[in-house]
Amino acid sequence: MTTLILGMVCCLYGLYQMWTMLNELQQYTRDQEFKPWYMFIPLLQYYFLWVKVPEQVTRAKQMAGSRNPQAAGIVLYIFLPMYALSKDLNEVWDPNAAV
After folding, report:
1. Band (66; pLDDT cuts 50, 70, 90)
2. Which end of the chain has less neighbouring CB within 10 Å, N or C?
3. Which residues cross the membrane (predicted)?
4. DSSP letter at 95?
């Protein structure tokens, strides 16, 4: 029972983290067409998380003047999306950080 409860809490925390990071990204770029709630729609979530999020991250990095304006590769966004997004957002918030 404990494993089930911890698994549900961690999953909910992961969803919460993705939601807050995507909202920060949308607020930074001020793009009204970028909707973070797309990550909850089956099948559309893959297109959104693998194509639209990296495009938006690249745009945010360019706006911030980052030394490396490219988003993390598609492989990272497929297998480790929370890591890839947080890594890219850290580069947006600190554009002069070492690459």
Report:
1. confident
2. N
3. 5-22, 34-51, 71-86
4. T
Assign 1 a pLDDT band (cuts: 50, 70, 90): low
CB neighbour burial string for 39-78, b if at least 16 within 10 angstroms, e if fewer = beeeeeeeebbeebbbebbebbbeeeebeebebbeeebbe
Residue 99 within a domain: no
The residue segments making up the domain with residue 55 are 2-93
| Token representation of residue 86 | 């947080």
Show Cβ contacts of residue 4 under 8 Å, excluding neighbours closer than 6 positions: none
Q: Is residue 56 part of a domain?
A: yes
Domain count, the chain: 1
- Return d(Cα 43, Cα 29) in angstroms, integer: 25
The answer to the question of residue 84 being in a domain is yes
d(Cα 71, Cα 39) in Å, to the nearest integer?
Answer: 18
